[in-house]
Amino acid sequence: MHGLLATAAAAVLTPVVAASWPPRLPGSDDVPFDEMYHGRHLLGARTGTGGRAAVGGGEWQVTVDGRPLHLMRRADGSYLSMVDHYRSYPTALAAARAAVDELSPTEQLRGVEAEGNGHSGVHA
Predict the structure, then answer these.
(1) Which of these, 19, 32, 46, 83, has the minimum number of CB atoms within 10 Å of its CB?
(2) ∠95-36-29 over CA atoms, to 5°?
(3) Is 118 helix (H, G, I), strand (E, B) or coil?
């Protein structure tokens, strides 16, 4: 009886669990990129920090027209960018393209150095 109940529960829960995982599209693996997208130069590569670069880990160094685009890896493997904190993207390239889509044609990414005036950003 317990075996039958476990089998029925697995049959009911399998589609729910499968639907909760982000879809993996063919060719959506994170690979280094160097491309022009809507007139912007996108460049991205893994750095190897953390000793996990060989197995898909490590940090991404991504630039848009030579300016850094900071990405954050989510627990599900997708990415958030500093341009859009509310939507996640399946690859670093998809996050970089979405950042370009959010910028106006003349707008550039602002770097930390643009804000710097010798202060640490903490105000008392």
Answers:
(1) 19
(2) 45
(3) coil
Q: In this structure, are residues 91 and 29 in contact, taking their beta carbons and an 8 Å threshold?
A: yes
Cα 65 from Cα 106, distance rounded (Å): 11
The DSSP bridge partners found for residue 61 are 45
What gap in Å lies between CA 92 and CA 77, rounded to an integer? 10
Residue 116, pLDDT above cutoff 60: no
pLDDT average, residue stretch 79-98: 90
- Is pLDDT above 80 for 18? no
Residue tagged 């602002």 (tokens): 110
Helix or strand holding residue 14 (H, E):
helix 2-20
Nearest to 46 by CA among 34, 36, 58: 58
Fill in the DSSP letter of residue 27.
T
CA of 59: how far to CAs of 30, 47, 51, 68, 79, in Å?
A: 11, 5, 10, 13, 11
What lies within 8 Å, CB to CB, of 7 at 6+ separation is none
Q: Would you state the structure tokens that stand for residue 35, as one six-digit string?
A: 């491309």
